[in-house]
Design brief:
The structure is a homodimer. Chain A is built from nine helices and eight strands. By secondary structure, chain A is an alpha+beta fold. Chain A has two domains: about 150 residues, Jelly Rolls (Sandwich); about 80 residues, Orthogonal Bundle (Arc Repressor Mutant, subunit A), CATH 1.10.10. In chain A, the strands form two sheets. In chain A, strands 1, 2, 3, 4, 5 and 6 form a six-stranded antiparallel beta sheet that branches. The first copy, chain A, has a two-stranded antiparallel sheet with strand order 7-8. In chain A, strand 7 and strand 8 form a beta hairpin. The first copy, chain A, is elongated, with a radius of gyration of 19 Å. Chain A starts with a helix and ends with a helix. The model of chain A has no long low-confidence stretch (mean pLDDT about 90). Chains A and B meet through helix 3, helix 4 and helix 5 of A and helix 3, helix 4 and helix 5 of B. The first copy, chain A, binds a DNA duplex through helix 8.
Chain lengths: ~230, ~230
DNA sequence: CGGTACGTTGAGTCATATCAACCATAGTGG
DNA sequence: CCACTATGGTTGATATGACTCAACGTACCG
């Protein structure tokens, strides 16, 4: 029964994520208590305000991370894909989670308990540095995002989002974006009302920049979208 | 000439900042190459796009960190006060600075070269953990900020900013905020036009929530501002 | 005294939010 | 099988917050 876990943990995937500087002994150390977990669409991995007991490295699927504001509206600040790490912030700061993570596309994750993470950070400098770099990169992305929100129109941000989704999650054989979000989710990424997203999407469609059927989106004219963003 | 540096480095201030887990030997190690630097209002500490060779721990004064967007408008995402650390993100990720830091109030900083920082992260797990926690806290603040920007009106954000400035930088004997920002700077924190800030400030003034004379601001009715923010 | 940077006010415009109605779809239970 | 309900998507009408532009005031500085 543990063979699956062992196989996964010792396979090459670790080199693609923040665990890449762990040696065989350290992987064994992790293996003692890590778990491979599976979640389906809309399941909650961890929740804002609640204590977390470990962090998660994604192996497959897509997860959204969002904060719920005072009036109950959500803001999605991250869409995570395989080999990204979730929830280490709260684990390291020993505070309750400051956001909720739920599943967009069915996923498998590797759960790492708090004590193991702490121990590895303290004993493996390279690993600590890697984690620091991940945190710093997220911080930088976050700052860029704020600057954009402060300065760009909804129209620009939506165009940019579509390009980002294509770049990060790719397209299938019909050129459709692999990631499918509801109108409300799109609105919660851009930071606007769902009606606005709907209007802008059909605007883009009528100008032949994109094609939409339900949640399936095809980008027809990348250049045009880039121009809207203003690059 | 080094006596000042040595005195500062070995005094108790380090316990108030991220360096608190360094032992005497490590402080000596830092001392070999750190420098105490002084900057005056409007001087640039480091600049967006430029390579950085080290990071800075603030000892006195106030610094603003901002990003310059595509259209040349600035967005101020952080106002740093003593014992906070600046620029470690770029140092650790080995990338050019992604923002500019300039001086609001004359300040002294302790400059720590890149190689020393790297070495300490790799060899002192507690220190790495502390730095990670700082990064995580900033990340969390940043996410909160984004969520607010996505969901709150300029009016709310300005009210919140005034409260934050009072809380973080305090007031003088006349109840005036210790930090004095230009209208444009206020606008660049809130993410709006200077005219909007001016209008809202005089609105707040006419409703007796605050008093303003030039850049000196007094908060008269904290409760009212909190109510505007919506707590 | 003119210059430069900063602050203020007014008028007009536009993007976006809000509210309300309506449609499509799918699942549910009688 | 049909009504029933819930959920998500769409469209229109309306309101308004915030931006832009432009003019003007103010203060400090050489």
């Amino acid at each position: 029964m543990n063979s699956e876990k062992a196989r996964i943990l010792h396979s090459s995937w670790k080199n693609q994520c923040v665990l890449r500087h762990l040696n065989a002994d350290e992987i064994d150390y992790l293996e003692e208590t890590t778990e491979i977990r599976r979640y389906k669409r809309n399941e909650v991995i961890f929740m804002q305000e609640k204590r977390v007991s470990g962090c998660y490295v994604m192996l497959s699927g897509i997860v959204k991370q969002f904060k719920t504001g005072v009036e109950g509206r959500d803001y999605i600040f991250r869409l995570a894909k395989p080999f990204e790490i979730l929830g280490f912030r709260s684990v390291l700061s020993e505070e309750p989670a400051c956001n909720t993570s739920t599943v967009i596309d069915d996923c498998t994750v590797c759960y790492i308990p708090k004590d193991r993470l702490h121990h590895l950070v303290k004993t493996n400098g390279e690993f600590a540095l890697d984690l620091l770099q991940v945190a710093c990169r997220e911080l930088e992305e976050s700052h860029s995002l704020i600057t954009e929100m402060a300065q760009k129109s909804i129209r620009k941000r939506l165009a940019e989002l579509l390009l980002m989704l294509q770049y990060k999650f790719g397209v299938n054989e019909n050129q459709q974006l692999n990631i499918m979000l509801s109108r409300e989710e799109l609105a919660n990424v851009v930071g606007t009302a769902t009606e606005s997203v709907i209007r802008l999407l059909s605007e883009f469609k009528s100008e032949r920049y994109i094609d939409i059927s339900g949640r399936k989106i095809v980008i027809l004219n990348e250049k045009a979208l880039e121009k809207i963003v203003g690059l």
